[in-house]
Amino acid sequence: MSWAFSFLIIQFSPGIIAVLGVEFLFGLFAIFGVFSYFFVLRYIPETKGKSLEEIEHELHLD
Predict the structure, then answer these.
(1) Most buried pick, 7, 16, 21, 62, via CB within 10 A?
(2) Rounded CA gap, 36 and 30, in Å?
(3) Which helix (H) or strand (E) holds 38?
(4) Is the dihedral of CA 26, 29, 31, 34 positive or negative?
(5) How far is CA 27 from CA 4, 7, 13, 16, 49, in A?
(6) Confidence at residue 61, expressed as pLDDT on a 0 to 100 scale
(7) How wide is the angle at C-alpha 15 spanned by C-alphas 11 and 17, nearest 5°?
(8) Which sequence spans correspond to the domains of the chain?
């Protein structure tokens, strides 16, 4: 996924900068960053200090 999104960013950034400007591009990055932050808070469980069994139970893998 990282390579795929890196490819997309490299391919489309020059066009976005040429048409809409650097400010729009970095605003878009900021929006995705904020979305990612809330996604992680909501859907990615904290695993620090937990045993493997506790993590499996939280993820309903047992």
Answers:
(1) 16
(2) 10
(3) helix 22-43
(4) negative
(5) 21, 19, 12, 12, 36
(6) 74
(7) 115
(8) 2-58
